[in-house]
């Protein structure tokens, strides 16, 4: 069955407000909605994809009046001719979303590589990829895209992180600079942890990557078996687990806890705990 989209879906996906979309329809005849048997407006998949291309040009400072004079083939050609450095991250996000809708692996990877070339790896990750991950999750929760689209995007991004990580050559001395990376069972936290893995590999850390730890008490029962671990890194621990974490911060004063979390509430400071508010601070704090 063909997927249909409502105007709120276009708004969620592109960031263009619904009233602006309607104005563009009326004034420039950019896209034309279909009507259901009960006279409800909707857009078919071809129109949805066309609107993604339109917004790609719009975010690259091409005037809507100019876009309205182009055929769909001319719009596609103009998008392909855009130079990567001429666009902002909203445009990159539109590009990447279109590859997700089309399930286009090649263009997905190319978009990420072009972004790295234009802006460098770190900016690509925390200014583009991490926000895009949250956007995909929101679009899935609002049913603008399917779970298959979400899985396609998330698994490709994970593979992107893995490839970057494994390309970094580390020369850590055995038993030194060992760090455990753990996160709770919130899926979105995995991507912050994968970026932490890249940052720490550059610093020659030996990394033990433990994702989706749902039982902190059980984890800490085995902590001593890691022996020479000097640092424990936690990423975005959910609120109900913060009290458990703080219990071990107090109990293990010789272990340094790095916590990446925007919502973590600190009742008191501890010398062995460093709270990192965003990914940009990660490199300088560890």
What does this protein structure show overall?
By secondary structure, the protein is α/β, with parallel strands linked by helices. It folds into two domains: 7-165, no CATH class; 170-285, Response regulator (Rossmann fold, 3-Layer(aba) Sandwich), CATH 3.40.50. It has 13 helices and seven strands. It has a five-stranded parallel sheet with strand order 4-3-5-6-7, covered by helices on one side. Strand 1 and strand 2 (41-42) form a beta hairpin. The longest helix is centred in the middle third of the chain and has 21 residues, at 121-141. The chain is elongated, with a radius of gyration of 23 Å. It starts with 6 loop residues before the first helix and ends with a helix. The mean pLDDT is 83.
Question: What's the structural blueprint in terms of helices and strands?
Answer:
Elements: H1 7-14, H2 18-28, E1 34-35, E2 41-42, H3 45-58, H4 64-67, H5 72-81, H6 89-102, H7 105-119, H8 121-141, H9 147-167, E3 178-183, H10 189-202, E4 206-210, H11 216-221, E5 231-235, H12 239-251, E6 256-260, E7 273-276, H13 282-285
Parallel strand pairs: 3-4, 3-5, 5-6, 6-7
Antiparallel strand pairs: 1-2
- Structural category is alpha/beta
| Beta content | 5-15%
Major sheet description:
5 strands, parallel
Evaluate the radius of gyration. 23 Å
Q: Overall 3D geometry? A: elongated
Number of strands: 7
- Going across the major beta sheet, what is the strand order? 4-3-5-6-7
Number of domains: 2
Low-confidence stretches: none
Distance between the termini: 51 Å
Number of helices: 13
Mean pLDDT: 83
Please bin the fraction of helical residues.
40-55%
Order of helices and strands: HHEEHHHHHHHEHEHEHEEH
């Amino acid at each position: 069955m063909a997927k249909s989209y409502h105007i709120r879906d276009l708004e969620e996906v592109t960031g263009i407000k619904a009233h602006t979309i309607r104005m563009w329809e009326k004034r420039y005849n950019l896209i034309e909605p279909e009507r259901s048997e009960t006279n409800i407006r909707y857009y078919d998949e071809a129109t949805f994809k066309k609107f993604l291309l339109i917004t790609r040009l719009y975010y690259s400072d091409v005037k809507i009046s100019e876009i309205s004079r182009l055929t769909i083939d001319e719009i596609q050609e103009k998008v392909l001719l855009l130079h990567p450095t001429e666009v902002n991250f909203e445009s990159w996000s539109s590009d990447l979303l279109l590859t997700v809708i089309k399930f286009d692996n090649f263009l997905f990877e190319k978009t990420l590589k072009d972004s790295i070339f234009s802006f460098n790896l770190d900016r690509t990750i925390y200014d583009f990829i991490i926000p895009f991950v949250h956007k995909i999750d929101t679009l899935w929760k609002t049913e603008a895209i399917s779970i298959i689209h979400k899985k396609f995007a998330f698994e490709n991004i994970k593979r992107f992180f893995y490839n970057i990580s494994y390309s970094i050559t580390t020369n850590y001395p055995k038993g030194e600079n060992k760090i455990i990376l753990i996160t709770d069972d919130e899926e979105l936290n995995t991507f912050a942890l994968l970026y932490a893995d890249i940052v720490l590999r550059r610093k020659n850390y030996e990394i033990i990557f433990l994702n989706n730890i749902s039982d902190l008490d059980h984890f800490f029962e085995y902590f001593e078996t890691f022996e020479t671990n000097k640092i424990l890194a936690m990423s975005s621990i959910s609120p109900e687990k913060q009290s458990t974490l703080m219990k071990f911060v107090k109990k293990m004063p010789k272990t340094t806890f790095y916590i990446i979390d925007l919502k973590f509430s600190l009742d008191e400071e501890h010398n062995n705990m460093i709270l990192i508010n965003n990914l940009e601070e990660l490199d300088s704090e560890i």
